[in-house]
């Protein structure tokens, strides 16, 4: 019966270590989730920026073609 408190103390120590390990794992998991979210946002922003740049380039080419057609050449 004298070993019972020691066993309970060891069990509590084990539970405390497990809780600390789980807390560390949760912190690392949340850090990875944040990093993945940031990466997704960056990819989406770059995709939108690329789309707008392509659209702006096509618009500029259209304007250049219209301007080229309106040039009057001297004879």
Q: What's the total number of strands?
A: 0
Query: Roughly what fraction of the amino acids lie in strands?
Result: under 5%
Order of helices and strands: H
Cα Rg? 33 Å
What's the tally of helices? Answer: 1
Main structural class: mainly alpha
Estimated helix fraction:
over 70%
The largest pleated sheet is described as: none
Low-confidence stretches: none
| Net shape | rod-shaped
Question: N-to-C terminal Cα separation, in Å?
Answer: 117 Å
Mean pLDDT across the residues is 88
Transmembrane segments: 35-54
Keywords: Membrane, Transmembrane, Transmembrane helix
Briefly say what this structure is.
The chain has 75 residues and is mostly helical. It has one helix and no strands.
Q: Your description of this structure?
A:
The protein has 75 residues and is mostly helical. It has one helix at 4-69. The chain is rod-shaped. The N and C termini lie far apart (117 Å). The mean pLDDT is 88.
Secondary structure layout plus pairing:
Layout lengths: L3 H66 L6
Q: Which terms summarize this structure?
A:
mainly alpha, about 90% helix, about 80 residues, rod-shaped
């Amino acid at each position: 019966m004298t070993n019972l408190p020691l066993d309970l103390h060891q069990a509590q120590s084990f539970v405390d270590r497990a809780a600390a390990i789980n807390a560390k794992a949760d912190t690392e998991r949340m850090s990875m989730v944040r990093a993945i979210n940031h990466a997704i946002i960056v990819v989406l922003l770059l995709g939108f920026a690329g789309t707008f740049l392509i659209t702006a380039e096509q618009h500029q080419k259209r304007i250049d073609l219209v301007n080229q057609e309106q040039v009057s050449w001297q004879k």
